[in-house]
Amino acid sequence: MLTLKQIYDDKAKVIAGLNKKHFSGAQEAIDEVLRLDGERKAAQQEKDAAAAQMNQISKSIGMLMAKGQREEAEAAKAQTGALKAKIAEYDEKMAAAEEAQTKLLLTIPNVPYDIVPEGAAAEDNLVVKSNVPHHGGDTVGTWVGEVNNDEAKLPHWELAKKYNLIDFDLGVKISGAGFPVYIGQGARLQRALINFFLTEANKAGYTEIMPPTVVNAASGYGTGQLPDKEGQMYHCEVDDLYLIPTAEVPVTNLYRDVILDEAQLPIKNCAYTECFRREAGSYGKDVRGLNRLHEFSKIEIVRIDTPEHSDASHKEMLEHVEGLLQKLELPYRILRLSGGDMSFTAALCYDFEVYSEAQHRWLEVSSTSNFDTYQANRLKCRYRRAEDKKVALCHTLNGSALALPRIVAALLENNQCEEGIRIPKALQPFFGDDMIR
Q1: Are 395 and 372 in contact (CB under 8 A)?
Q2: What's the whole-model pTM score?
Q3: How many alpha carbons fall within 13 Å on the CB side of residue 107?
Q4: DSSP class of residue 117?
Q5: What is the model's pLDDT at position 139?
Q6: Which is higher by pLDDT, 399 or 230?
Q7: Strands (E), 344-436
Q8: Beta strand 207-209 with 267-276: parallel, antiparallel or unpaired?
Q9: d(CA 157, CA 146)
């Protein structure tokens, strides 16, 4: 949630940033936030004036009684009673203005950083790095293999059937479309990737968390999934609980209504969870098989940091995710998302994509974002500065490290050979073999 200080300090910059995110009615929304704040302040001033007058009159009552001026004292008491009623009215006005202001602020997205590219959609994202020549951005070395669009390569849904790894029809039978059943070596590959990603996160200094996979509404509002993505979340209406779309939600909410010491920062957590999303997209090859699911496994990394260090934290997170893709020997690229393609809550976001030689397309496997103070303001996640002991809002960051479905798709498709499907060397100790046969 944007802070009022942020808006008052540079209203024009805030509105320009919201326009970059293609938020409709930015000027009107910000003007209304300030109008409601003015209404609250006016009621506060009226209340303070009435309270001061009531205190002054209250002090005179004793003096009037002492002088035997009972009639004047009773009149003064009546005045204080009327002022008390007025103060109650001002309290109601203040509460109503503040409630309306907060409700409106919850619908306004975060302001993107200046380096976020202009643009309305994914086509406007900027490729900043790639290990595949001729795919834009800075090329990192050369690709370990040779990327090509071999028509003989099978897509992962056919490989899954050939090697009995994933049964999509059984998932439909017991749950519905978008809920695959992993079998035998397919299930073992899932477990191997989960353990590999968690082990790498642990090596990088992340403390593992095993959080609940359902959260209350306060947690959804805290990280910004509510009200923005309410229709995309599975809602348990009887208990008013939501199935998590990502471990970002429960892990970041560990620090809701908490004041941390600066010495504790940065906090680095990771978590493996199942993730649930109602949106499944359109029909066709772009959403076929593992390309888009209602339930999937993901390892999330989350950081809580100071504003001064959050940029360095973001870079470290990007290096961590990139290192995972390098160890999995996958062709990848990194994109800085344009304003129109960024999430509601992010101030800066980079996507990682891996290339599928069978599908001839790039598959997103991670979004790694800095949210600045936006989530922290919603969460009231703060820290006490060591220098002056003042309390300030933290910065929150998170990223997928990694989401499994499209990683599995790329591993199957890119590593198929006559003997079977080759397992990358770094993954072999976790999988227990060098090949799916």
Answers
A1: yes
A2: 0.92
A3: 13
A4: P
A5: 63
A6: 399
A7: 348-356, 361-370, 381-384, 391-393, 395-403, 416-417, 420-422, 435-436
A8: parallel
A9: 23
